Structure formats: structure tokens, C-alpha cells
Amino acid sequence: MNDWQTDKRQMASWEQPAGSEGPQQTLPLTEYLQLLWYRKKLILAITVFVAIVGWIHVNQIRSIYTASSTLLLGGQQTQPVEIDAVLKRDYWGDQVLAEMEVLKSRNLARKVVERLKLQNVPEFNPGLREPEEGLFDFLDYLDPRRWIPQSWKDAVKEAMGGETRVDPVEPPTGSEQEDLAKATATNILKGKIKVEEVEFAGVVIISVSSWDRNLAARIANEYPEAYIVDKLEARFEATEKANTWLSEQLAELETKVGESERAVEIFRDERGLGDVAGGGLLDRQLSELNSQLIVARAELAEIGARLEQIRLLNVGNTNRLATMTEVLSSPMIQQLRSQELEVLARQSELSLEFGPRHPRMLQVQAELGEIRERIELEVSNLIAGLENEADFARARITQLEAGIREVQGEFSEINQDAVQLRALEREAAANRALFETFLSRFKETSSTQGLETSDARVLSQAEVPGGPSYPNRRQQLTSIVLMGFLGACGLVIGLHFLNPGLRSPEQIRQSLGEYVLGVIPLVSSKAPMYDYVIDKPQSGAVEALNSLKFSLALSDPDIEMKAVQITSSVPEEGKTSLALSLARVEAASGKRVILVDGDLRRSSILRKLGMKPGHKGLSDLVVAGDVELEDYILRDEKGRMDIMPIGTAEYANAGDIFSSLRMEHILGQLKERYDLVVVDAPPVMAVA
């Protein structure tokens, strides 16, 4: 088997192994960096382009200047008169937030506009601005409507019946235009104001942004002044309103005081209440009657208790009755008791001499029974007397109660009139006190009117800013350049994945199961690589070609490498340049080298070497048969090697040449005459 067949076998070995899934798209970080470095020119070009466009855009952005002034809310003020103000002046806590809203209010912005006449400044009046040219204004000319002449548009409208008539709107008057301009300027100014609070300090910072640095400082200084004036005007108006209201209230209260005092006098005269204190006589009389009633009720209770005690005792038990106070206090009963004791004594003496049925004993018993009957009669009389006393006590109580009711009736009438009188007097006193309070407050507010001072003061005036607050051109341009660089890197990586292929020895080994024989670097020289290897024999490209030559020689150590066929998958992959470069490097080492052009469709060797086409070559040699090889060989003096061009004979298929026996015979002759035969074969996929 000759070298040509070995070359064909090596070509076939590049087929993708069965079961392979194709090239892997996942790249390690180092290969990403290599990819970005390989495309560094594209990345740099995109980054520079984006930077230029960004620089133009940033420089077209209008500069905005910000000035700030500082205002103290609720500052300690020395008041000429220490009087509680009609308005409550507490700016701490939520009041600070309320005052900040006042600073941001439309009313205050309108006053600043009027004081500085901002409606005449183009920044605050869009109608006074001149049209600005932007970076992309040229895109307006791409609108097809701008290409049509106005006369054509008018003709079309006239042909379609003319424009629809709309009732004309009456233009605004001069004052209306002025108000509209002020309203517009106010809206714009509100968007340019920023009010911030210094925490727990009662201090606010007023920041104003403007196209003009001087105007920004003027507005920032005008805002606190307008705020202070507005507060003073508000207090003055509030004092005016308070005085007016107090005057009205004083007039009404004065009328009420007079009416209430007259009502007291009229009521006192009508009811005869010259002195309400005269009701004390009835009080004393009622008190005496109540005291007598209490005594009478106590006596009745005592008599009732005695009667009840006597009734409960056995009337016949003279011994127990004798111990009662009423019995002891009765002379008749005491006398009868004495007689009873004497009779009992005689009865006791006679009982010693006589029996119970003796006449003298019977006489004594009869005398004793008579005495006891008389005692019982006296006790009955005593009970009757107590009952009479009880009846008298009840009558006395009834009489006293009637007297008390009579006095209470009189006292109630007097009290009702007195209560009504005191109510009228209290109303009159309240009206008088309220009148005096309002009169005092009216005098206070009248004395302080015109002496109003502001409890807010300016801590620091705004200074003219030295530079714009927006845009930060350096930062924006840096961001744009960074985004352009990252976008370019993303574009390179995206294009890499959109154009799949084998780009590294590892991918070739993993996908095809073959090892790479060599890697030829691109040269930065303007000269083609096949000239560069002659001009720079010590360059890295020459070393890479030598490595490729050694790899080819070691691919099959048992066979001497006499012929090399170089091909590619598709055209324009650099196979011809590689064939020329390899042949020239081998020739430069002193070997006899011939380069055979075998690309029937896209032959370019003669053109690359600057030789005229039309020379006889390989195709003519295959057709002619056994002839002298010198007639079909050209000399490359610069490369010190021979060249066999493709020739002028036409073949429909390159495979007819390379698979013919005549081709094998020609290669055999060439290998006998040369140390190395390099064949520039056509692309594999192009002729498949």
C-alpha cells in the first residue's frame, strides 16, 4: 500500500464515531476567555463605537444645577409682649411634616413664580423654548409622510370633500394667557423643588434644580423668604379674623349680659323676693316643728311601751304590779297596798288561833278581797289614764305633722322662686364672666396686632452651584462603555453558539475521537502566511508547521512520509494557504518539494503566487498518459519548490482523477523525484 492510499485512509478516519452527539457547546472559563481574546478586535470596535455614541449622547444632555438653602422651623423668638397667640405655634413632631407640606404646596410655588416672574423664563414656559436638536432627530426624515409635498396633501383633501369644519375656539385673552403661563410655571417649579428634613432638628433643606445655576440659587433663596412672608401674612389675617370675630361676639355678649341682668330684677320684683335670705324664718319654724314632732313621737312610744307592759302582766298578780313605776307612783294604790299588807298580817296572826272557817278568818278574807278589788280598779283607772295620754300624744303628733306640711308648702313655693332666681343670677354671672374674658382677649389681640414675628428663620442662604448635579457625565459614560463592552462580549459568545463547530483540540477529540496533529496560528502580518514563513523563518507559525510535519511523520512510524494530502470540509477554510506554507517550510529546510494543485473547482495556487493561469498541469497529465513531467511543472523561485498546477483539461468529478490508476502512477513518479509531495485536494463536503 503506497503513501497515497495511507493519506486516503487518514482522510476517512475523520468521520464522526457512531453514537457521538456532536460538538459540545459548553465551554470552560479558559476557553471563554480565549474566545473573547480571539475576537478582541470586534469587541474593541463595538466598545469604541458605543463609547463614541454614548459620549455624543451624554454631551447632548442638558446640565442641571441644584442649589440648597436651610430653614429653621419653630426657632425661639423674643416676643415683645408675652401673650398666648391666637394661633397655636407648635412645629415639632407632626407639625414639622405639616410645614414641609406647606413648603411643597402649590400656593407657595405660585407666589415664588409671581415674585421672580418665572412665567417669562423659557425653562418654566415651554412656549418660549426654541426647538432642540437631538442625536436621533434625523430619524424624523424617515417618516414617509414628510416625503409627500404639502400641495399634494391639500389636493387630496380637496378631492375628498375638504377638511371637516370645526367651530373655532375663541383664543384666550391676555390675562388668561398670563394665568395659564403662571399655572404652567407653577407645575414645573413644583417638580423641581425638593424639601428634606434634618431628623430631630426642626431644620429643613430646600433644594431647587434648574438649567441656570444662578436661577437655581435665586429660587432656593426666594423660597424661604416667600414661606416666612406667607406665614406672617397668614398670622396677620388670622389675627384680623380673630379681632373681627371677637368684636362680633362682644357685641352679642354685651346684649346677653344686659338682658340676663334685667331678667333677674324683673323676676325678683314680680315674686316679691326682695331678699332671698328671708326664707330663713321658715327654716327656723320648720326646724322647731320637727323638733316638737320628734319629742311627741318619743313620748307616744314611751306611753305605748308602758301600756303594753301593763297589759302583758297578770292583773291579779298584785305583787308584780306593785313593782311597776306607775303603780308605785300612784298614792291610792300605795295606800291600798298598805291596807292589804295590814290585813295580811292580821290574817297571819288569826290563822295561829283560829281555823279557816272561823268567822273572824272569813271576815279578814272578805276585807282582803275588797282591798284587792279596789287595787284592780285603780290599775284599770291607771291604764285608762295612760291610754288617754297616748291619744293626746297622737293628736299632738297629728297637729305637728299638719303644721310641718303647711310650713313645707310655704317653703317649697319660696324655694322654687329662689331656685329660678338663682338660675337667672347664675346665667347673668356667666354671661358677665364670658363677656369680660372675651373683652380681655380682644384687648390682647388688638395690642399685639402689627407686632407679629416669624418663628422660622433662614439658617443658610443658597450659593451659586459650581457644577451641575446632573448628569454625572463621567459616571454615565463609564456605565455606557462598560455596557458596550459587556454587550460586545455577549455578542461574541452568542455568535459563537449560533455558529456551531469544532474550535479546540478537546472538542475534536471528544466529538470525533481523533487527535489534532497540529495547530497553526494566525499571523498578524499583512502578508499572507505562505510569504510570512519565508520572511520570518524563526516565527511561531514556522514552528507550528514543523510540529505538524513531525506529527505527520510520527502518525505511522513504519512508513516514510513522502506525500501529504491537505483538504478541508468546505471552501475558504485555509487549506491552500496551509499547503503552500507547509511546502515552502519543507523546501526551506533543503528538501525537494513539489506542490500539486488538485482543486478542480476553486484552484487558487497560481493566483496566490502571482502566476498567470492557463498552464498545463495535473488534469492534462492524467489525460495525456506517459509523457515527461517537466512539461507540467512550474518553478516557485521564492519558495524554492516546484508546482504542478491543476491544468486545463476539464473533469466533471474530482474523484475520477484521484481514484484513477494514472493518478497513482503520477504520484509514484513524483515521490521518486521529490522528498515530499504536497497535494492541495478539493474540500471534502464540496465534492461529496
A few lines on this structure:
With 688 residues, the chain is an alpha/beta fold. The protein is 59% helix and 7% strand. Among the domains are: 3-18 and 502-680, P-loop containing nucleotide triphosphate hydrolases (Rossmann fold, 3-Layer(aba) Sandwich), CATH 3.40.50.300; 26-61 and 471-499, no CATH class; 277-448.
CATH class of the domain at 3-18 and 502-680: Alpha Beta
Widest beta sheet: strand line-up? 5-9-6-8-7
Report the sheet-strand fraction. 5-15%
User: Helicity level, as a percent range?
Assistant: 55-70%
Contiguous helical run count = 22
CATH evolutionary superfamily of the domain at 3-18 and 502-680: P-loop containing nucleotide triphosphate hydrolases
- At the fold tier of CATH, the topology name of the domain at 3-18 and 502-680 is Rossmann fold
- Give the N-terminus to C-terminus distance in angstroms: 24 Å
Secondary-structure content class: alpha/beta
> Any idea what the CATH architecture of the domain at 3-18 and 502-680 is?
3-Layer(aba) Sandwich
Q: What's the shape? A: elongated
Q: Report low-confidence residues grouped into runs of 5 or more.
A: 1-25, 76-91
Report the mean per-residue pLDDT as an integer: 76
So what's the oligomer here? single chain
Q: How many β-strand stretches?
A: 9
Major sheet characteristics: 5 strands, mixed
